[in-house]
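Q: Here's a chain of 244 amino acids. Please give me its 3D structure as tokens.
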Amino acid sequence: MNKLMKMVMLTPVVALADTVVISDSPTVVRKAEIREAIRQDSTWTSENIQKNPYLFLQDQIAACDRLKAKIEAQNITLIRMEKKATRAVKESEEIKTRYEKFLADAKAAYKVANGKWPVSVNGYDLDEDELNDKIADAMERVELAKKEHKDNEAIAKKASIRKGVLKTKKRDLVSLRMKLVQQAEQVKMNAALAEIGDLKAALGTIQDMMIEIDEDPTKLSVEDLTAEDPNAKRNKKVNSFLND
């Protein structure tokens, strides 16, 4: 068990030292017993659970509460990420439409000019170099807008799926916490303790959830958008566009 997990699991144990009854000894002795149990082994083994079932259950209930808080915080992040990506999809579509219109207008004007310069596009007279530059820029912006549209659509979809996963995990977590609380009440009243295997299974479930929830949902392998084509390749694309 790593250091972080040990800290997570030990914190509620220490906090409960004043209230948990693990023997008929005076309070100071009980505190010493708890400290000694922590000193001997900070991992929840079957033996430790058997010795301190109520402490274990309270520890796992506290872990459930921390996980629930993490899920809620992550859900807020995902909602913001999905909204931002959805806006970006709309904006990229608008950019794509605007530059595609310019390309259509430029191509039509070039055909009308029939090899004569300057070419008039939307009221502006452009010589050959100016027209090539503007067409190249527009084509690059269309391609970039397409990529941004695709990337942000993927981000929005991932955020939506992740929210659904978290909703299910939160529901499972609430159910697990309820069972732990009921078990803790039974132990507190000296009722029969559940099988150690069942309690260890609860510990494993919570630890697995901790690992899954700690994954950063905002990290995606999005390609770099800043790469620029060499001028020769760009001019070749322009000529191909104008003369197809």
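Q: Can you summarize the key feature?
A: The longest strand covers residues 119-121.
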